[in-house]
Write a sequence for this structure.
């Protein structure tokens, strides 16, 4: 357990806005370990809330959140929409395909337009790394990164951490971090913002991270992030506690990165036989969408007691509720979240 940061209040976290002093949520790389733990702790109340029959709160009543998605999404878009609605906000979705982006409007002009509509939070997914940070510099409200190019997908890493923590807790592990755990992430690391955010988040929480990909899909500078690279999946799986599979991001591939999906499955697909190389009770994760029969077999993806893929989706709503709640506290005038806390 983390030691208390604030003994006078008994809280494990700094008080009020100092617990999370950022206006935006752009990247896990911008967060301290205690800030990650704070968002996870805040999300716990929403896990319980979302399991009730009635799931409506008025916490964000009167606020408007805009989900501006310049790339396709099922899980992230829907969970941000559900999160905002369950908190009582007015939620508006902007799909780039139906927007004036198609008429040539620039990203900055789009950002300025959303800002003029006085949104209280803007959630953005964009195909270019850094685009969400650029938008954040042109608006006055909190901006949440729902995935930018190959850079980061911070709420994915947070929901993965929450799902993993819940599974470990179910097995009797009370620690709130992942010290002593080995997590193997396998797949298209090169194009994966999920991998980047997860490497940072898992390491911040004490896990050892192994990365596995064919040479063409392993970024050259990845060792600088402190994870151990592998090209041999069997070696990467050896006694791993958690196996996180990633899909091939064909939409970001310009040219031939793998000989064929069949060959890829043979070398890097998670089959029941391969899974046996990890620990007996190894936990299986995948951020979705899955390519069943390519990077993961259905017998593994649906393995009861081991796969937490649907739990990852459930935790996505709770994490996004927590992020919207925390980032709008200043706008809502929540005591302790006054002036000067945004950095
Ligand atoms: N994991 C994830 O980001 O899924 P979507 O692309 O469906 O949002």
């Amino acid at each position: 357990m983390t030691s208390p940061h604030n003994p006078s209040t008994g809280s494990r976290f700094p008080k009020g806005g100092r617990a999370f002093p950022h206006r935006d949520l752009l990247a896990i790389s911008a967060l301290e370990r205690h800030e990650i733990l704070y968002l996870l702790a805040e999300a716990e109340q929403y896990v319980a809330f979302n399991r009730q029959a009635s799931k409506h709160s008025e916490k964000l009543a009167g606020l408007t959140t805009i989900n501006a998605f310049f790339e396709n999404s099922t899980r992230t878009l829907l969970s941000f929409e559900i999160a905002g609605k369950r908190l009582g906000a007015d939620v508006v979705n902007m799909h780039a395909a139906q927007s004036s982006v198609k008429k040539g409007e620039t990203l900055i002009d789009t950002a300025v337009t959303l800002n003029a509509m006085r949104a209280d939070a803007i959630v953005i997914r964009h195909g270019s790394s850094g685009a969400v940070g650029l938008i954040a510099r042109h608006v006055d409200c909190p901006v949440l990164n729902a995935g930018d190019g190959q850079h980061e997908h911070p709420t994915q890493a947070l929901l993965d951490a929450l799902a993993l923590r819940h599974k470990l807790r179910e097995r009797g592990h009370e620690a709130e971090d992942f010290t002593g755990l080995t997590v193997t992430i396998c797949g298209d690391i090169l194009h994966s913002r999920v991998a980047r955010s997860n490497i940072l988040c898992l390491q911040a929480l004490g896990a050892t991270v192994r990365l596995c990909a064919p040479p063409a899909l392993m970024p050259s500078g990845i060792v600088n992030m402190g994870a151990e690279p592998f090209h041999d999946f069997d070696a990467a799986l050896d006694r791993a506690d958690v196996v996180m599979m990633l899909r091939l991001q064909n939409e970001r591939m310009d040219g031939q990165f793998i000989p064929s999906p069949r060959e890829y499955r043979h070398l890097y697909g998670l089959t029941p036989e391969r899974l046996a190389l990890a620990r007996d009770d190894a936990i299986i994760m995948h951020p979705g969408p899955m390519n069943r029969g390519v990077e993961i077999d259905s017998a593994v993806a649906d393995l009861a007691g081991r796969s937490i893929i649907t739990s990852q989706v459930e935790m996505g709503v709770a994490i996004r509720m927590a992020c919207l709640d925390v980032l709008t506290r200043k706008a809502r005038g929540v005591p302790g979240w006054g002036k000067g806390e945004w950095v």
